[in-house]
Design a protein that fits this description.
The complex is a heterodimer.
Chain A lengths: L1 H19 L30 E8 L2 E3 L4 E8 L3 E4 L4 E2 L3 E6 L5 E8 L4 E11 L16 H8 L3 E2 L9 H20 L5 E6 L6 H21 L7 E7 L10 H7 L1 E6 L2
Parallel strand pairs in A: 2-8, 10-11
Antiparallel strand pairs in A: 1-3, 3-6, 4-5, 4-7, 7-8, 9-12, 10-12
Helix pairs in contact in A: 2-3
Chain B lengths: L1 H14 L24 E4 L12 H14 L4 E2 L20 E3 L9 E3 L6 H4 L7 E10 L2 E10 L5 H4 E10 L2 H18 L9 E6 L6 E6 L6 E2 L7 E6 L5 E8 L2 E8 L5 E2 L9 E6 L5 E8 L2 E8 L6 E2 L7 E6 L6 E6 L6 E6 L6 E2 L7 E6 L5 E6 L9 E6 L5 E3 L7 E6 L5 E6 L6 E6 L6 E2 L6 E7 L4
Parallel strand pairs in B: 1-2, 1-5
Antiparallel strand pairs in B: 3-4, 5-6, 6-7, 8-9, 8-31, 9-10, 11-12, 12-13, 13-14, 15-16, 16-17, 17-18, 19-20, 20-21, 21-22, 23-24, 24-25, 25-26, 27-28, 28-29, 29-30
Helix pairs in contact in B: 2-5
Classes of the chains: A alpha+beta, B mainly beta.
């Protein structure tokens, strides 16, 4: 019952649409081409417009008693002047000024039928705050020492073993770290594992994790407390070199020591 | 009545050995296993009444591309078509049968106007004809779409599709009705429509790697995550409702699970580990497999969808990543392991048992992906090339026969099977930057889908059901 109603409705709908197309096949009326537009000739210029190419003051802020230099470059102007008592000036030039307080200089250029202005402000400060008190001794931070005195350890392709050269590097790095921890026992070091661009992104992330752990295990063997060491893999996300050759690949296959954030 | 007719037509199709439904793509040579014979499809240039005509260029190119890119049809070039083109079934005039001139002569057939044989006979030699027209109705674009089997003796049995489609009166509406009509046509040939499916991928176009999604043809690209860190390795649950990925949070890699519909973060408790990566949903969406650094090595684990009840599935001194669960059985897990030395493709049961190596030990293997039927796999392999020079391969899981689909055009990685089982999406360095491409599972019809920034790690998600 219901089905036949649906069929009837559908049939009716089809008949309506079919009826709508009875008038032969739909004749495609192509829209008329767009009207040709008449291009208006640009009015020929009678005179070139006045243009201030530049107007600067250096330095922008000074202490009282110091000077600043104004420089300007103007095109197509017949009458050029700067306020604050500087008067008429030539099209290109510079002038030393000694404002005693913050001053705005305005350059005005006039020519045949047009004008242009530009301003520059020189800030004058009357008193400058004193420097911070001197510390007992200028000291490098632990992070700076780590960055300066430790070296990266390098790995063979698709390997995580510490090579002979890596053992030497890490032995030197370990003594640097011991020195840092002697003065700064809570200093945290992140060991980063990196890979070259070959191999898949996901496998390299796992390999970098293993490389970082291999470095950590070696440093712990050399007496660095495990609690001062964290590891992270960057896989091939952060290469130091992007050429496609072995020299570059080798630079990227590395363990790197960084201060924890 | 109508159903019976269609069933009868289907039987005729099957008898003609061109019915593709339920046939899994065969790996090796022609992927579709149709004896090299694809149905020949003719598609008229549809015309529109009045304002509808403005959108017909869009409509006609969309319809043609959708059918042509399906890979299951042989499109008959339009230069072979008869001059008189039907726009509706009544345009066909059945031939008149006259008695033989003399007794005993066979009846004569007199052509009364355009007829099915104009299309089925040379030079067109089509098996099927898609035709119809569009018009404006109540401010909307109306499509009357027909698919006829032109090999049939009469209009009733030729009629396979006879349907109205509605869209907005603009190019988007024209695309929509063309896609819906194409999906109905492809369904007649056993193809699952890709309409509504989404491709999730990684893009660095904002300056950070974030997860993005787009439609299957590269349109509608949309940013899905906003972590301003490094987010990558997306996967989408089988129902299309959740996506998981890994993100660098402070100093460790974590897995995130988000709602695909709202973009909101869903709860997932990461175990304590420096590296957690390559998430994968089980087909029922109830569990998540992933790789985590446990006891010094990144091995494969499984947990509930919220991260609870975690178990370590593999315990080896090797890196193991990319677990991929057979979408049909839910039992077999493919994964990449370095346990034999260089990374190869392995398989195990979902409980960690019955481990076997799938690839033969040559080259480096990455990025396994199951076909929707769970009978074939796609992966990236450096077989025969330098390390890093990946290409896309597909392999039958039973016979382990493989076919190489890309070659000589940059590095090609991260293949992912489309829900229709005949397309793949993948990344390639062949052009500027790394971009995402799609192709048929036999390597043909390669098409670039992205252009902005670097775009990687595509996964083809089912439409949200």
């Amino acid at each position: 019952m219901r089905k036949s109603t649906v069929v009837a409705v559908l049939a009716a709908a089809l008949m309506i649409t079919a009826a709508g197309c009875k008038k032969k096949t739909p004749v495609a009326t192509t829209p008329p081409p767009p009207q040709p537009t008449r291009t208006t000739e640009p009015a020929s210029p009678t005179a070139l417009a006045v243009r201030i190419n530049s107007f600067t003051g250096e330095p922008r802020s000074i202490e009282r008693g110091q000077s600043a230099t104004l420089r300007w470059s103007v095109g197509n102007a017949t009458d050029i002047s700067i306020d604050q008592g500087l008067g008429s000036v030539s099209a290109n030039g510079s002038r030393q000024v000694f404002p005693s307080q913050t001053t705005t200089y305005t350059l005005t250029a006039k020519g045949a039928g047009s004008a242009d202005t530009r301003s520059v402000t020189i800030e004058v400060s009357s008193s400058v705050p004193p420097p911070p008190a001197r510390t007992a001794a200028a000291k490098m931070s632990s992070a700076e020492i780590l960055g300066r005195d430790t070296q990266d350890v390098y790995f063979d392709y698709d390997k995580n073993d510490i090579r002979a050269d890596g053992r030497d590097t890490l032995t030197r790095d370990a003594s640097v770290i011991k020195g840092i921890l002697g003065a700064d026992p809570s200093f945290m070091i992140v060991i980063e594992g990196h890979c070259d661009e070959r191999g898949s992104e996901e496998y390299n992330l796992a390999l970098g994790d293993r490389r970082a752990l291999a470095v950590k295990e070696f440093l712990v063997q050399l007496g660095i407390p495990e609690t001062n060491l964290k590891t992270i893999s960057y896989g091939k996300e952060r290469p130091v070199c992007t050429d496609e050759n072995e020299a570059c690949y080798q630079k990227n296959r590395r363990g790197h020591l960084a201060p924890a954030q | 009545m109508k159903t019976k007719l269609i069933l009868a037509s289907f039987a005729a199709l099957a008898a003609g050995a061109i019915f593709l439904a339920a046939q899994n793509p065969q790996i090796g040579g022609e992927i579709f296993g149709v004896g090299g014979k694809k149905p020949r499809m003719a598609v008229i240039d549809f015309r529109g009444t009045g304002d509808a005509q403005k959108y017909m260029a869009t409509f006609n190119s969309t319809l043609w591309d959708e059918l042509n890119n399906s890979g299951v049809l042989e499109m008959v070039g339009k230069s072979f078509y008869p001059l008189e083109v039907p726009q509706q079934p009544q345009d066909f005039k059945p031939p008149t049968q006259l008695q033989g001139l003399r007794r005993g002569d066979p009846p004569r057939t007199i052509k009364a106007g355009p007829w099915l044989t104009d299309w089925s006979e040379p030079p067109t030699s089509a098996n099927y004809l898609a035709f119809g027209y569009t018009a404006v109705q109540d401010g909307r674009l109306l499509l009357r779409g027909f698919l006829f089997n032109v090999g049939q003796p009469d209009l009733q049995s030729a009629d396979l599709i006879h349907k109205l489609y509605f869209g907005s009166l603009d190019d988007d509406g024209a695309k929509k009705v063309a896609r819906e009509f194409a999906a109905d046509i492809l369904q007649q040939f056993g193809m699952k429509s890709l309409a509504g499916t989404k491709i999730f991928f990684v893009s660095d176009r904002t300056g950070n790697k974030e997860i993005w999604s787009m439609d299957y043809d590269g349109s509608n690209q949309k940013q899905m995550t906003f972590y301003h860190s490094i987010s990558k390795q997306p996967v989408v649950s089988a129902d299309g409702r959740m996506f998981a990925f890994n993100t660098l949070v402070k100093d460790s890699w974590q897995i995130m699970v988000h709602s695909a519909a709202t973009g909101k973060k869903l709860p997932f408790y990461n175990p304590v580990s420096s590296t957690i990566e390559t998430p994968e949903f089980t087909p029922d969406g109830k569990r998540i497999l992933f790789s985590a650094s446990m006891n010094g090595w990144v091995n494969i684990c499984i947990a509930d969808a919220n991260g609870g009840n975690m178990t370590q599935l593999t315990r080896v001194k090797a890196a193991e990543v990319s677990p991929r669960v057979n979408p049909k059985t839910g039992r077999d897990v493919l994964f990449i392991s370095g346990r034999s030395g260089i990374e190869q493709l392995w398989r195990m049961n979902i409980d960690g048992g019955d481990v076997e190596m799938i690839t033969n030990g040559e080259g480096y293997v990455a990025n396994p992906s199951w076909s929707p039927e769970g009978t074939a796999i796609a992966f990236a392999w450096t077989r025969g090339y330098e390390p890093g020079a990946f290409n896309i391969f597909v392999m039958g899981i039973a016979d382990k026969k493989y076919v190489q689909l890309t070659s000589g055009q940059g590095k090609n990685e991260n293949p992912w099977w489309a829900p229709d089982g005949v397309h793949l999406v993948y990344q390639s360095t062949r052009g500027r930057n790394i971009q995402i491409y799609s192709m048929l599972a036999n390597g043909r019809n390669q098409q670039q889908l992205t252009t902005v920034g670097n775009n990687t790690q595509p996964v083809w998600a089912n439409a949200i059901n």
